[in-house]
Design a protein that fits this description.
Helix content is 38%, strand content 11%. The protein is of the alpha/beta class. Among the domains are: 64 residues, no CATH class; 103 residues, Nucleotidyltransferase, domain 5, CATH 3.30.420. It has a five-stranded mixed β-sheet, sandwiched between helices.
Length: 253
């Protein structure tokens, strides 16, 4: 725990918990959770609030997240992890290492997510293989999949494959993305992270995808009162201490 720190050190520590790749320019509450594990000073909450309101990256690249009015009918809450999942594509990205799409797959119960980079053109067969390579090997076959009406999810191959595996495919109503609001919100968080971290070099977003996945899964989620990492692994994520200038006598030439 840090006691009696000066303003300069406070700024460096707050920069680490908010603006670093592991901080991800998170919101106030998620940002506040991280420093409490390592240090504390009087008016820490106020310091975090002031730091966030002065963050030029957040002001430049984030947008209003106010909820739209109207009654919502939420999907039933799953009872086990990784048996009811949702998935969606983030498209319209600049080419990065030949990739221009992010496939987002999330556990509906405990929010744990995986981000898989894809490139156009892709088919139901290639997406199914990517599922095998990135999701199945870790979590097995789900009981249900929530998705929008992308042509991949409507294809005969996709429908036949998961029907044979006993997986129930739940498709959103046309022009109603809020059916899968959880994944839409996650997409927004991912887009904000990438926008804040590589806005000056957008063609490098693929290099940030693994860090984005770690950031999201180790960030506190108020809906579950834990981080997705803690739910899945039953332990707190390892804490990576920040590097502060002049702490090491080893320098790169």
């Amino acid at each position: 725990m840090v006691v009696g720190v000066d303003d300069s050190l406070k700024t460096k520590l707050l920069h680490w918990v908010h603006s670093s790749p592991l901080g991800g320019h998170s919101g106030r509450d998620a940002t506040l959770k991280k420093p409490k594990q390592l240090f504390y000073w009087k008016d820490l909450h106020k310091s975090v609030q002031n730091f966030l309101t002065q963050c030029t990256i957040c002001q430049a690249y984030k947008y209003d997240t106010s909820a739209s009015p109207g009654l919502l009918q939420p999907l039933p809450i799953p009872k086990e992890v990784w048996v009811d999942i949702s998935m969606d594509f983030v498209e319209g990205l600049p080419k990065s290492q030949g990739k221009d799409v992010i496939w987002v797959v999330v556990d509906r119960l405990r929010k744990y997510a995986h981000f898989v980079a894809l490139s156009h053109p892709y088919s139901a067969e290639t997406v199914a293989q990517d599922y095998l390579d990135n999701i199945f090997k870790l979590h097995g076959i789900p009981r249900s999949i929530v998705s929008d009406r992308d042509t991949i999810f409507l294809s005969s191959f996709w429908q036949s494959l998961f029907s044979a595996l006993g997986v129930k495919l739940l498709l959103s109503s046309a022009y109603h993305p809020q059916t899968d609001g959880q994944t839409e919100v996650l997409n927004m968080c991912l887009e904000n992270y990438l926008r804040c971290m590589c806005a000056q070099n957008p063609q490098e977003w693929c290099n940030w995808l693994s860090l984005a996945e770690w950031w999201y899964n180790t960030s506190y989620q108020f809906a579950i009162q834990l981080t997705p990492y803690e739910v899945l692994y039953n332990q707190s994520p390892p804490i990576h201490l920040p590097y502060l200038p002049r702490e090491s006598n080893q320098y790169c030439s």
